[in-house]
Amino acid sequence: MDADVLDDGNLRLEFTTTGEDSQGQVHEMRATYRPDSALPIAHLHPQQSEHFSVLEGEMWCLVDGVETTLRAGDSIDIPAGSVHQMRNPGAENAVVTWQTRPALRTGEFHRELAVARRSGDISAVLAVVSEYSDVFVVAPQA
């Protein structure tokens, strides 16, 4: 598998600009969410904002308790510290441009998380989440 393409069958991430490419300014990916994709755990990024632009399909978003459905041509900005989740509820792939600013260790986090998830060892996944708490924090559960 190419180091800059990660695919778990639910979500395909293609790194298009890394922190190294942009002097730390942005990590950008072309993300393909498969039909009826799984909902990730509610989470936040303590020091990073995100911008998502939908190129194809539709995305359901929950940001700080507010639900939104985005379609091709729509975009959303998620401020640092905002609790959020996103998924593709549709029957077709959803393709988005996903930017994280500043880049920090976003690329490394996604690479390490992919390895841990492939191992099937939940303790490995939790270790990655703990190690990268500067870029990803599981939101308190209600």
UniProtKB/TrEMBL annotation:
Per the UniProt entry, what species is this protein from, by scientific name?
Blastococcus aggregatus
Q: Which domain of life is it from?
A: Bacteria
Cupin type-2 domain sequence ranges: 32-98
Question: Tell me, what's a Pfam family for it?
Answer: Cupin_2
Protein name as catalogued: Cupin domain-containing protein
